[in-house]
Each structure stands twice: as C-alpha cells, then as structure tokens.
Predict the structure.
Amino acid sequence: MQLYYNSYGSESLPTLIILHGLLGSSDNWHSFGKIFGEHVRTFALDARNHGRSPHSDVFNYHAMSEDVVEFVRQKNLSSVSLLGHSMGGKTAALVSLLHPELIDKLIVVDIAPRSYQAHHDRVFNALTSLDLSMFEYRKDIDEVLSKKIQEVPLRQFLMKNLLRDDSGKFHWKMNLEAIEKNYAQINEELPRDHQFDKPTLFVRGENSEYIQMEDMPVIYKLFPKAKLATIKDAGHWVHVDAPKEFADTVLNFLSF
C-alpha cells in the first residue's frame, strides 16, 4: 500500500519515521516534523484508513507494520528510527520486532505491547451518528458533536478529519467504518516471540495510565535495551501537553 506522507529535512541526514495514533494523521505531527527535520530526515506517515492514505477493509497491526516496511524499502531508506504514538507506537514496535534489520532506534510513545480495554466506543458512536450531508458549516458539526463529546481538544482533534468534496459536502478523511469494525484488533497485544535488541525508548505521560510499571517486565523481555522516560504534567497526548520536553527527550535519544 502506498502511504501518504509529509517529509522534512535533508536527504543527507539519518531518517526518522513518525506514526500517528488512532483517528489521527500525519498533519498532527507537522510542527514536530519541522523541529525534528533540523536534525533528522523526517517522514510523517498517514496509516491506512487514515488521513490521505488508501482505505482498506483490512486494518490490523500486521497490515500496518507491513505498510511501513514497504515504505522503507520503496524509499531505499537506511539509518531508520521509528517513533510512534499510541496505535502508531504499537505499529512501530511490531515493525521493529519483525524486521529489526531495518530499524536502528525505536521510540514508543504512551503505549505498551499489551492488550487494552475498548474505550473509544463513545467516540465512534458520536461520529457515526452524524449525517455529514446535512451540515453546511463546521461550527454546526462541532455544536452537535459537543452534546456527546464535551472535551474541546478531543473534538478539535476529531474534526481535523473533516473534508469537503467537490460538491462542497463534508466527509471524513478516515475510513470510519473499517476502523470501527476492526477496532478490537487495535486493542490486542503484540506477539511475544520476537525481540528487538537495539536502543529503545518508551515515553509516557506522568498523568497517563497507558504504561504502568507492571508493563515493564514484558517491555524488557521484548526490548532488552529499553529505557523509560516519564514526561511531567503530561497525559496520553504527551507531545501535545508538553511539546518542548517531548521534543528534547526524543532528540536527546536520537542524537547521532
């Protein structure tokens, strides 16, 4: 699958690939692409069924990891580091486990390789209940969404997926139907029969519960050289809550 991407930085630099989280896109990482692009050649990818990448009924970590491998090989990239947040973090971890020869360094942001309870049902219900053809203005969509999703930052994040077609009608960039249908697979644990024995950094938000200390034995089993960094006063969206601290942590780890 040919993934859509944004690129930053010189071709002469080592490579960093950024993988976004569920219902996100490469555009969420534009500011960090510019920051990281001063130090590493940076590619921010849209996962399948997200952003401007192709849609598919197949949506699981194996497929997404193979999409990244295909991207690396098509671009003939070397000295590749992977950075993934949440769903993107699990994808990056699986790429590193299954294809360690392609990856030099791994950064997993606020996700562990274990299974998780479903907790996006409220979001899916809110999004699928909208008949976008009935709306003329974004503010009206926001008003209706606010009745089911009160958190303004979350609504703003979700509404970045809105586009108008040639006739001016709104539609979702992401393949909402396939994502919701396969959501259970996104919550599954990663296989535990491989290792990535290269530099690895797990980054968690101090106020997030996604990475617990009881997750560390499994993390160390799969990633023997893993280190854990905790960003103060940050939640699951670590890079949004503490952008400078997050960027500094990543660049210090990547320092070539």
Remarks:
- Residues 121-180 form one domain.
- The chain has eleven helices and nine strands.
- The two ends are 31 Å apart (CA to CA).
- The first strand starts at residue 5 and ends at 8.
